[in-house]
Amino acid sequence: MTTREGLLRWIIRALAVLIVGLSALAVGTPANAEGETLSGRMVISQTNEAVDGVKITVTTAAGEPVAALTSNKEGKFRTPLPGPGSYTVTMDPKTLPDGIELVDKSAVTKNVDVEPGGFQAVAFRLTDGSSLQPEKETQVFQLLFEGLRFGLIIAITAIGLSLIFGTTGLTNFAHGELVAYGAFAAWFVNVTLGAPLWLATLVAIVAGGALGALSEYGLWRPLRKRRVGLISALVASIGLSILMRHLLLIFVGGGTESYDVPAETETDYGLVSATQRDLIAMMICVVVLIGIALLLQRTRIGTAMRAVADNRDLAESSGIDVNRVILMVWIMGGALAALGGVLYGWTLDLRYDMGFALLLMMFAGVTLGGLGTAYGALLGSLLVGVIVQMSTLVLPNDVKYASGLAVLIGVLLIRPSGLLGKKQRVG
Amino acid sequence: MEILQNALKALVAREAIYFALLAIGLNIQFGYAGLLNFGQVGFSLLGAYGIAITVTTWGGSYWLGLGVGLAAAVVLALLLGLPTLRLRADYLAIATIAAAEMLRLGFRTPSATEITGGTQGLQGFSGEFYELSPFPLDKKYHPFGILFTGQELWLLTVGWTLVALLVLAVWLWGRSPWGRVLKAIREDEDAARALGKNVYWYKMQALIVGGVIGALGGAVQATATRSVDPDTYLPIVTFYAYAALILGGTARPLGPVIGASLLFALLSVTDSVLRDLTTGDNPVISSDILDSQAIAATRFVLVGAGLIALMAFRPQGIFGSRTEVSIDAK
Question: Contact B318/A219 with Cβ under 8 angstroms?
Answer without folding.
Answer: no
